Amino acid sequence: MPASRTHSKQPEQLLPARLDSMDADRLRRYRENLAFYEGRQWQGRQRRGERRLTFNYAKAFVDKAASYLLFDAVMHVEPLDGEDPAARARARIAERALREAESLNGLAQLDYETELDCAVLGDAAYKVTWDPAERCVRVTAPDVQGIFAWRVPDDPARLTAVASRYTLDGPGGPAETTELWTAETFELWRGRERVQRIANPYGFIPFVVFPNVREPKQPWGASDIPPLVESVRELNRSFSQLSQILELSGNPIAVLEGVAGSQDIAVEPGAVWEVPERARAYLLDLLQGGGVALHRDYIDLIYRTLHDLGESPRTAFGHNPQGLSGVALNTELDPLAKKIARKRLVRTAVYERRAAFILRLLAQFAGLEIEGLRPVMHWGPVLPVDRSRQVADERALVQAGIESRRTAAARLGIDDPEAEWARVREEGGGRREEA
Length: 435
Known about the structure:
Layout: H1 16-19, H2 24-37, H3 57-69, E1 74-79, H4 85-104, H5 107-121, E2 123-131, E3 136-140, E4 147-152, E5 155-170, E6 173-181, E7 185-190, E8 193-199, E9 207-211, H6 229-250, E10 253-257, E11 280-284, H7 291-310, H8 326-332, H9 334-366, E12 373-378, H10 387-399, H11 405-411, H12 417-434
Antiparallel strand pairs: 1-12, 2-3, 2-9, 4-5, 5-6, 6-7, 7-8, 10-11
C-alpha cells in the first residue's frame, strides 16, 4: 500500500522536514474539495465575454447533512452494573462533569464546525488535553490538513503515533510547530529543531482522528463533495447558457441578408430600416421552437442526478408539492436517513472515545471516580416524528420491561434523565403533601 495511505516507518524516524512530502495525494484532495465547497467550481480560464454563474449546491448539500446528523445528539454516562446504587451515583456525577466540559469547550458549536470540515475534506480530528493553569479539560479540533497518523498495519483504526503541524506566533515571528505524540512520548519541534522530548503525561495519544465515511480497508475517509462535482458543474454551465440566451432574446440580434453594409441600422421601438431590393432584415428569435423548455427540462434532469447522488431528496429542502407526511414522507426522505445512519456509525465511536478521554483526564488530574462507567451516545431521530406517538412507544417499552426509564428519556432528548426523574419524584411528593 502506498506511503500516503499507511505509513510503514516507525514513529521514531519522523522528522518535520519529512512531512512536506508525506500524504501528498490526501492533502491535494483536501485542497480540491475545499475549493469546490467554497464556490471555485469552474475549470479552465474564463474566455472573454463568457458568463459563469455559480450556484453552490455543494455547500447546501453538505450543510444540510451536517444539520441532520447532529440533531438531538446527547452523550450519557452509564454504569456497567446498572443494579449498583453506588455505580449509578458515580455515573450521575461523571455525567455532570462531562456536561461542564462540554459547556466550557462549546462542543455544540465545535462539533457542527468540525462536521462541516469532515464532510468537505473527508476526515477530521479532535484533540483532548488537560489545561494545568485552568485545571480543566480542553477539547479542540485541529485542522486535519496538518494531521499525520501512523497506524497498526492490520487495523487502520488503531493509532500508534500522531503528528500535528501548525503555525505558532512567537517572539521571532510565526514559526512552524510540530507535535509528535505516541502513547509513551511527546516531542515538540520548532521549524526543523526538536526543542522538547518528554514522557507522555497522559499515557495515551490524545487525538481522535476519524473519517467522514470510512472506505473499506482504508485509513482515510471519503468526502461528500466528489459525487456532486459533475452535476454541480453541469448545472452551473446550463444556467449560464440559459441566462445568456434569455439576455440575448431581450436584446435581439438583427440579421440582414443580401446587404453589403449596415450603416444607420438601429434596433429600437419605431425604427425604420431601408434595405436594398431583394434583401431581407429580421430579428433572430432564440426562443422559437420551445428552446427555453428544452433547457428547463435538461436542468430538471441535472437536478435529479444531483439529488440522487447527494442522497438528499428535494423534500429535505422544503419541496413537498404533494403534501407528504407520516410514512410517505419518511419513505421520501429515506435516502438521506441512510446517509446519516452511515455517518453515525462512525460518529458514535468517535464521540464515545472523546468522552472517554475527557473522563480519563478528569480522573487523572481532578480525582473523578470513573471505575465501572462508560460513555454512551444517544442519537435523536433523523426524520420528522410524531412526538405523541414517540412518547407512547417509549412508555410501552418501559412498562413492558424492555428498556429503562433512563434510556427512554435519553431517546426523547432529555439531557439529564436522572435529574429529570428526581424532579418528577419531588413534584409528585409535593402534590401528595398538598393533597
